[in-house]
Amino acid sequence: MSHNFADASARQRAKLLLDDGSFRELLGPFDRLTSPWLERQGIVPQFDDGVVIAKGRIDGQSAVVAAIEGGFQGGSLGEVAGAKIAGALELALEDNQKGIPTAAVLVLETGGVRLQEANLGLAAIAEIQSAIVALRAHQPVIGIITGPVGCFGGMSIAAGLCSYLIMTREGRLGLNGPLVIEQEAGIGEYNAADRPFIWSLSGGEQRLAGGLVDACTGESTGSVASALRYYLKKGLPKVQRSDAFDRFLPALLELDNSQQLDAAGARAILKGVQA
Description:
Keywords: Transferase. The chain is an alpha/beta fold and 275 residues long.
């Protein structure tokens, strides 16, 4: 599989990750489940609300894939899109409770909450986070972050709750996006147009070096799919990353925010996190 994973649509990504012939979409575009809020604000809705939910198999094991379409509203989540992901995770949890092992894969290309749906989006993301925590007690929940949007906002917190995180080199992960930081703190603090600087701090290689993700792969579907299958076979981690806060807090206490942090400084602060 040499297809560039980052160039694929959300629907293509879900199909590429699942075993051949096992892809079955739930609440697809023909179900016409759209956001009730976007048209009122002059925005053309999308019939899947920018999220593809697929049930299938990965190496023969039951799995659900939720893939966010970064090309629709920057991958932002509102009431419907968030409910689709939370519902899929909850159905996977029910499968496990019935003795049917079902893992979950989240393909995260998102800026976080959809501003046009503000509080509804926040509530939906809270439901997603709760569902991740419940499901990961039974089966791995694996997040995949790629380009071009990356993963920011409330969904970056959801990413941190995943059992394992896989990033491509072109992916980005952070709580606030570059434009938000520049708007709030000024261009002197964070220049959103300085791509090398941004990727040096929030790109896949940097996040791997800091212990915030488990794998940094190439952009090909083969690389991403191989890493996904590796972590599915590995099973549940002994300690979930979000439960290992005692490894991260000392690093935060070392942080001197009187000067702008660069990539080398960030790696130095997080040097002991992987241990």
